[in-house]
C-alpha cells in the first residue's frame, strides 16, 4: 500500500474544483482510460483575459491522480497565464507534501493536461498571448506506444527531476510500464540527456581512473563535479547544496534553498548528488546529509 501524506488523502477524499466548465476558454485532455489514467482539465479566464478565474477537472485514476488534479486547480486559480505556465509537476508534489515516486506520473499528467489546455486556448482565442510549450523538432515522436509518451516529454521529465534510471522514468511518465518494448529507447534517451556516452568516451581517453587518484586529486575532482554539475542542476530548480566533508568514500552534503525544505530531499541526494559523484568520480561513493 502506498504511503500517502495527510494532504494527499484530503485532496483525494475531498477533491476541490471537480466537474466541468461548459464555457471554458481552454480544455486539455490527456491519458487513456484503457491504460488506467485519464484527465480532463477546464480553464476559464477572468475579464482581463490574462488571469485564470476558474479551473475544474474530471479524472479517471488512482488517489494520486485525483489529488494531483485537485491540487493543480487550486494552484492555477488566481495566477496569470504566464505565472501558471512556469509551474512544474514537482510543484504539485511539493504542494501535496510529497508523492510516492511510483506515483509521480500523476503530477506529470496534471501538467500535461494544463499544457494541452493552453494549446486549446490558443486555437480558440488566437488573439490572446497564450504561453505554449512547444516540443522541439524530432521530439514529438511516440516512444512508448502503450501510454503514448513522447520523446520530448521523457527528456523534459529527466531534466526537470534529475532522473538517472529507466525505472524512475517509468515512475514519472509510465513510459516502459506496459509491454516494456521501449525500455532500450528510454535508456538511450537517458544516456543522451545525461551525457553518459560522451563522458564515458572522454573518461577512457583523458581521465585518470579514480582508483589511481591521490587523496587530494580525488577531493579536487569531487569539488569540481559538485561546483560544475551538481550545484548548477539544483540551482536550476531553485535549490542549492554545500559540500561539507569528504571522508574516504563518504561525502557529506547540506542541502540549501528549496532543496532544504523539500520532502523529496533524500531522493535528490541519492538520485542526483550521489549518482553524479559515482558517475564522475567513483562508483563506491555514498552521500549522506549533514545534520
Features:
291 residues, alpha+beta, Sufe protein. Chain: A, Arc Repressor Mutant, subunit A, GMP Synthetase, Chain A, domain 3, 3 domains, 3-stranded antiparallel β-sheet, 3-stranded mixed β-sheet, 46% helix, 18% strand, elongated
Apparent shape:
elongated
Number of discrete helical segments: 11
Please tell me the total number of domains.
3
Mean pLDDT: 83
| Annotation, overall tally of beta strands | 8
CATH architecture of the largest domain: Alpha-Beta Complex
Element pattern in H and E:
HEEEHHHHEEHHHHHEEHE
Strands in their spatial order, largest beta sheet: 1-2-3
Instruction: Enter the CATH topology name of the largest domain.
Output: Sufe protein. Chain: A
- Based on helices, strands and strand pairing, what is the structural class? alpha+beta
CATH class of the largest domain: Alpha Beta
Largest sheet data: 3 strands, antiparallel
Distance from first to last alpha carbon? 30 Å
What percentage of residues falls in helices of 4 or more residues? 40-55%
Low-confidence stretches: none
Strand percentage: 15-25%
Radius of gyration: 21 Å
Describe this structure in words.
The protein is of the alpha+beta class. It folds into 3 domains: 6-124, Alpha-Beta Complex (Sufe protein. Chain: A); 142-194, Arc Repressor Mutant, subunit A (Orthogonal Bundle), CATH 1.10.10.1100; 207-289, Fe-S cluster assembly (FSCA) (GMP Synthetase, Chain A, domain 3, 2-Layer Sandwich). It has 11 helices and 8 strands. Helix 10 (215-235) packs across helix 11 (265-280). The radius of gyration is 21 Å and the shape is elongated. The mean pLDDT is 83.
